Automatic annotation (TrEMBL):
Protein name in UniProt: Outer membrane lipoprotein-sorting protein
Residues spanning the membrane: none
Pfam families named among the record's database cross-references: LolA_like (PF17131)
Signal sequence segment: 1-23
């Protein structure tokens, strides 16, 4: 009698777990589908260049501005290279960040410091560090490749400005300064509208809001503004982007660590 009851209870418990397991699997599958479709819509551009400004804001409200040029080029197989070079003001002029992004493995990054005449490779542990004193980490400046995260759909809900969004949690598979990134993709075009970053202890560290999207070549949406707010320090950094130019003939062979020393 007791054995029969135990079997019945065990069976009931197992049955009760099935719906939650199926739901979890469905949430994971839906999150992966959303992330992959969003990534696919940004690919196939070949190469492009843009100009931008970085505006740093202290907790007390003081601001400083930097200007930069950036170029990207796809190198096949889901890989790409990018080079961001500051051109103003003079104390940061020609400082450059080179990123090689890959599909299925961690990215490589190098920082060119002209004042020291030195190329510094950014280690895996260093990717969580601040990029030139901003609220953007080095890892924020890379392509967020789908394969580098697990994705779980959380719910559909309103994003910034009331935009209808898919809300997806992505967790890094390798070394990262974040334990979790919660991403709002707008449902119409799957453009990133907002990202909440949680540190390794699970605290809500930063929030990124992306706005000012424009459509180029009838296919590619590119943002005009990115606002990163650090909730622990009160500091913020804004990146503004303009003058997007596609098919400018960016040569991937010159986007190499050795070429950084020739930046003038």
């Amino acid at each position: 009698m007791h054995l029969t009851r135990r079997v019945l209870l065990t069976g009931a418990a197992a049955a009760a777990l099935v719906p939650s397991a199926v739901a979890a699997q469905s949430a994971r599958e839906k999150g992966e589908r959303i992330a992959r479709e969003a990534a696919a819509r940004t690919e196939g551009y070949g190469d492009l260049s843009a100009t931008g400004e970085m505006i740093l804001k202290s907790a007390g409200g003081q601001t400083s501005t930097r200007r930069f040029d950036v170029k990207w080029v796809e190198t096949g197989g889901g890989a790409s290279r990018s080079l961001l070079v500051f051109n103003w003001p003079g104390d940061i002029r020609n400082t450059a960040l080179l990123t090689h992004s890959y599909e299925g493995r961690s990215d490589d990054q190098w920082l060119w410091l002209p004042s020291l005449n030195k190329v510094r490779r950014i280690s895996s542990s260093g990717r969580s560090g601040s990029f030139v004193g901003s609220e953007f980490a080095y890892e924020d400046m890379t392509d967020q490749e789908v394969e580098e995260f697990t994705h779980t759909w959380v719910q559909d809900g309103a994003g910034p400005g009331g935009i209808a969004c898919h809300i997806v949690d992505r967790r890094p598979k390798s070394a990262s300064g974040y334990s979790l990134q919660r991403v709002w993709f707008d449902r119409q075009h799957l453009r990133v509208q907002q990202v909440q970053y949680f540190d390794r202890r699970g605290a809500h560290l930063k929030t990124l809001r992306v706005s000012g999207y424009r459509l180029y070549q009838g296919r590619f949406w590119r943002a005009g503004r990115m606002d990163m707010q650090n909730h622990l320090t009160g500091k913020a950094t804004t990146l503004t982007w303009s003058n997007y130019r596609f098919d400018t003939g960016v040569n991937p062979n010159v986007l190499t660590p050795n070429a950084l020393k020739r930046i003038r």
